[in-house]
Automatic annotation (TrEMBL):
The lineage of its organism: Bacteria, Bacillati, Bacillota, Clostridia, Eubacteriales. This is Saccharopine dehydrogenase family protein. Residues 160-407 form the Saccharopine dehydrogenase-like C-terminal domain. It comes from the Bacteria. Coiled coil: none annotated. It comes from Faecalibacterium hominis (ex Afrizal et al. 2022). Pfam families: Sacchrp_dh_C, Sacchrp_dh_NADP. Residues 4-156 form the Saccharopine dehydrogenase NADP binding domain. Signal peptide: none annotated.
Length: 419
């Protein structure tokens, strides 16, 4: 019996909301609030006949703390699910603290304006000290730990697939398969084809910023940074087949390095086709991925935001995308003094997702874990106060919920390793 405020109504939120409505005994009432209320109303009207969850909607600009506070005060939720954009993480966390409500999200904070001098000074110091240059990192949200602890509240960070389920896989491996973990390789494969020469599977701005940034990995206690897309491997993925994959920086490496300190190396790989990479390189070369505003015919525009307006809406890819995703983690380490390897992963079919919730697998594999993370908090399975990432909690009930609600795990005790 709980009341949940969900902020955001895009590709990922839409799946999470569908899934919450499949568990009405826990999600008794939800309020869908976003910048564009019409999208919330449309989804609410579609779901209302299919669920006993009571759905209301609201307009909110979550860039403004006072608007979020006013909404929380009027709705009185037990939990706020932030499924808007990483830009809103801090304002929504501030509002949750002000109102005494638990918080969760699916991606760590990054600023919308990376030219902001105040942010830039802190960022440049962090680049030098930590040794990686991604725009996003956990320091901003970890800085809220004491405040959440003192308020007796929980903030669950990054309950999507990666970050999210991949960290639960690490916690599961640590709990059940290994005494010590030596290496972790996170492999994110999208074998889906939407038929466009170029489109992104989730918010283009967030996606292209992530992919065009330098890659990095954790090795022997420090970051190693490499030029974007400069480490390539091939891997034969179960139910997808042979794919090229590239080493990227990814946010969960940062928290895993902290929470599984014995790991000597942690890497993240994502598959990309040649057409995607060619387009991305060209767009980058001509300045279309820039976040710095330019003046065009007397109007200020941000190139990457203009590009977003031209690209297909990720939510529209659902009916066109065929094929499967395969995302998981390969571990090496020791159990009872013996060397061992282990691979845990999920395979998800784009068309099956579309049939069930009207979205492709990228939104599905993020939206289902968002609902399952909320389920853990609302049913008292995860109660630690403070600000925490997924691997800090018991993985068993979370993975059981994922098995049940659409993302079942597969495993192998003799996987091919990535060199
Ligand atoms: P979309 O762009 O499809 O949706 C974003 C939603 O947030 C839209 O409804 C948008 O409203 C709303 N929004 C944006 N700004 C504001 C604001 N200031 N106030 C209120 N609402 C706002 O994004 P996705 O659904 O693809 O991604 C959602 C989140 O999931 C992102 O944080 C993304 O990084 C994360 N993600 C995480 C993954 C993981 O595995 N962990 C994988 C994929 C995504 P409007 O309609 O007005 O634009």
């Amino acid at each position: 019996m709980s009341k949940v405020l969900i902020i955001g109504c895009g590709g990922v939120a839409s799946v999470a909301i569908h899934k919450c409505c499949q568990v009405p005994e826990v999600f008794t009432e939800i309020c869908i609030a976003s910048r564009t209320k019409a999208k919330c109303d449309k989804l609410a009207a579609e779901l209302a006949p299919k669920t006993t969850t009571k759905i209301t909607t609201a307009q909110v600009d979550a860039d403004h703390v006072d608007e979020v506070i006013a909404l929380i005060k009027s709705y009185q939720p037990d939990l706020v699910m932030n499924i808007a954009l990483p830009y809103q993480d801090l304002t929504i966390m501030d509002a949750c603290l002000a109102c005494g409500v638990n918080y969760m999200d699916t991606a760590n904070y990054e600023p919308e304006n990376t030219d902001d001098p105040q942010w830039r000074a802190i960022y440049e110091k962090r680049c030098k000290e930590a040794g990686f240059s991604a725009y996003f990192d956990y320091s901003w949200q970890w800085a809220y730990a004491k405040k959440f602890e003192e308020a007796g509240l929980t903030a669950l960070l990054g309950s999507g697939f990666d970050p999210g389920v991949t960290q639960a896989y690490c916690a599961y491996a640590k709990k059940h398969e290994f005494d010590t973990i030596d290496t972790i390789d996170i492999l994110d494969c999208n074998g889906g084809d939407h038929g466009y020469a170029f489109a992104t599977n989730f918010n283009p701005e967030i996606n292209l910023r992530e992919v065009s940034a330098p890659g990095s990995y954790w090795e022997n206690g420090h970051w190693v940074e490499i030029p974007a897309m400069s480490i390539k491997r091939e891997y034969n993925f179960d139910q997808v087949g042979q794919k090229d994959m590239y080493l990227l920086h990814h946010e969960e490496i940062e928290s895993l390095a902290k929470n599984i300190p014995e790991a000597k190396r942690i890497r993240f790989f994502m598959t990309f086709g040649q057409s995607y990479l060619d387009h991305m390189r060209c767009l980058e070369d001509v300045g279309m991925l820039s976040t710095t505003p330019v003046n065009f015919n007397g109007q200020e525009i941000v190139p990457i935001q203009f590009l977003k307006a031209l690209l297909p809406d990720p939510a529209s890819l659902g009916p066109r995308t065929k094929g499967k995703t395969n995302i998981g983690c390969i571990f090496t380490g020791k159990k009872d003094g013996k060397e061992k390897t282990y691979y845990i992963y999920n395979v998800c079919d784009h068309q099956e997702c579309y049939k069930e919730v009207g979205s492709q697998a990228i939104s599905y594999t993020t939206g289902v874990p968002a609902m399952c993370g909320a389920l853990m908090l609302l049913t008292g399975k995860w109660t630690t106060k403070g600000v925490h990432t997924v691997e800090e909690f018991d993985p068993d009930p979370y993975l059981d919920a994922l098995d049940k609600y659409g993302l079942p795990r597969s495993e192998s005790h003799a996987p091919a390793l990535v060199d």
